[in-house]
Amino acid sequence: MEGCSWTAAGTLLLASLLLSSRTARSEEDRDSLWDAWGSWSECSRTCGGGASYSLRRCLSSKTCEGRNIRYRTCSNVDCPPEAGDFRAQQCSAHNDVKYQGQFYEWLPVSNDPDNPCSLKCQARGAALVVELAPKVLDGTRCYTESLDMCISGLCQIVGCDRQLGSAVKEDNCGVCNGDGSTCRLVRGQYKSQLSENKLDDTVVAIPYGSRHVRLVLKGPDHLYLETKTLQGVKGENNLSSTGSFIVDNSSIDFQKFPDKEILRISGPLTADFTVKIRYAGAADSSVQFIFYQPIIHRWRETDFFPCSASCGGGYQLTSAECFDLRSNRVVADQYCHYYPENIKPKPKLQECNLDPCPASDGYKQIMPYDLYHPLPRWESTPWTACSSSCGGGIQSRSVSCVEEDIQGHISPVEEWKCMYTLKMPVVQPCNIFDCPKWLAQEWSPCTVTCGQGLRYRVVLCIDHRGIHTGGCSSKTKPHIKEECIVPTPCYKPKEKLPVEAKLPWYKQAQELEEGAVVSEEPSLLIGFSRFIPEAWSSCSVTCGVGSQVRLVKCQVLLSFSQSVADLPIDECEGPKPVSQRACYSGPCSGEATEYTPEETDLLYGSFQEFDELYDWEYEGFTECSESCGGGVQEAVVTCLNKQTREIADETLCVMSRRPPQLLKACSLDPCPPKMGDWEMEHLQSYLWGRIADTRCLLFSPIIKRN
């Protein structure tokens, strides 16, 4: 039996072959249990996206693995506007069927988050909502703003390619699986200047095809719409109440509040919309808007021109033409140059008519428009730089008639020899997009609760694409702060220290005018940019003299997002806080501490830093905690450099020498009742008269607290 013996490897190989054969047979048996798929059923809809199914039978008495039905989308062309909503049609089919002994006109209830594929309808003019069927027809949209569809009572995902199970989405331009390059973001702010002499004004023009439109009006005035279709039909629509409306086949959502109006249009717009504002009150209104505007002029590559030769090998080229997507016609190239996003495609070159010419011809026929044939042609120099970087400029070039000989040498010839084709233009407009302009955000609240204060706002430089950039003229920049008056009277006690007074009190107080000075350095208010320093780093050394650093940013609190944004350093006013300072970590162990004269002066200030150079001083009082009825002011204590009079870090002053906390009473007069305008004028005249006559300061008692 020696020749029939099996090795261990041979046994494993045989077992593997038997196992794989058995597995293949089991898969074959499983597939063979099913009959072939049947033909596809009729589509559940004739337009708007429906569903079709295909069935197969199980040929075995056993249970077959897998599904016996499969689905696909169909009839994906959009329905005409007059076709109506598919879910609404299913509700109206029950109008002639009694419900609880009564006929109703049923309207669809859409966007049910719990069961979007049940047929829920509401009786017109009543609060009655009924589920008239457990399942809507296949192909019904799950939600009004989604392509997902109901199939057999379940909501199935549908991508923008109209395929079941697809996750492909539209970009902001409405292009399926697009990259956002076919539209541009437009955003801005409008502030009304309406009056009884100017009752309305234009806020913004939104062109045909725009998407994701949102406008927010704040103030007493009202929005209304003017439209113009591509056929030139004009219309006007007043927005008087909250609701959803159809304007020129575009669905509009409008919300009206006592002091605010919100307009939303998903789009795409089927007409040119002009949003206008109508005067309704003395106060000014502001409108913020944002939308995606389609790039309606785009370069389109042409087909290949006819071949340059009829036989024997020639060339043919493509070109590019500017195409108006709205009118479906070719327009002048300058319209495509308006959009910097548009890149003109380069011509393509290919060989053609490569078959040899017949011997009887004796020559190769040359077409008269051949760019590579020695016929004279127009040739141009490159365009000069644009005369303006924005807002519309001019660039020029030289155009001459040249001729190419058989050897490829080019020489100028008379222009009449090129007159068989049009001469290229020698000038053209350029950079016709809008120049960057300042965009002012909303004002912050006033910094005081009575009397005169300040308010602030963010001012950004926005280019034609809506991007924060540079290039705006500093001469035309709107101011970022202004005075504001709160129409609530402030009553000062007879004894009050000026806010900005410094010790010694009795000398400096007499030199200041009566009245509080409003600080122009508030904390990070909405719309106000300022320097914000971060915490100091650890000392760079563990002993001896080192340095500490910190990051100082120019930041602003944005009103629309309630978030902090970084700005360029030059956007902040005032001196920038220092970002580096010296530090001392004590003498190094085991070594005699020796410093250079510079280090000694820096660290010890010629041995007088702690004793003489830095010391605590009072820096006036905080503002009164109340404007009337009694409040408290606290003395502000700071560490000052005696030589430069600059505020220093508190660690440079000796903590044991810090002066005690001082408090003083303020605004002791009772709060007055609300006055009319006439009473207010007389009260202010009286108070200012007292101030002018007195011209001196009386001090309230200072409370010392240990």
UniProtKB/TrEMBL annotation:
Major location category of this protein: secreted
One GO term (biological process): extracellular matrix organization
Keyword Transport listed: no
The keyword Disulfide bond belongs to this UniProt entry's keyword annotation: yes
Cell compartment(s), UniProt: Secreted
Keyword tags: Disulfide bond, Repeat, Secreted, Signal
Signal peptide (residue range): 1-26
Pfam families linked: ADAMTS_CR_3 (PF19236), ADAMTS_spacer1 (PF05986), TSP1_ADAMTS (PF19030), TSP_1 (PF00090)
Ranges where the ADAMTS/ADAMTS-like Spacer domain occurs: 187-294
GO cellular component: extracellular matrix; extracellular region
Disulfide bond sites: C43-C74, C47-C79, C58-C64
Matches recorded under InterPro entries: ADAMTS/ADAMTS-like, ADAMTS_ADAMTS-like, ADAMTS_CR_3, ADAMTS_spacer1, TSP1_rpt, TSP1_rpt_sf
Domain ADAMTS/ADAMTS-like cysteine-rich: from-to ranges: 102-183
Protein name in the entry: ADAMTS like 1
Taxonomic lineage of the native organism: Eukaryota, Metazoa, Chordata, Craniata, Vertebrata
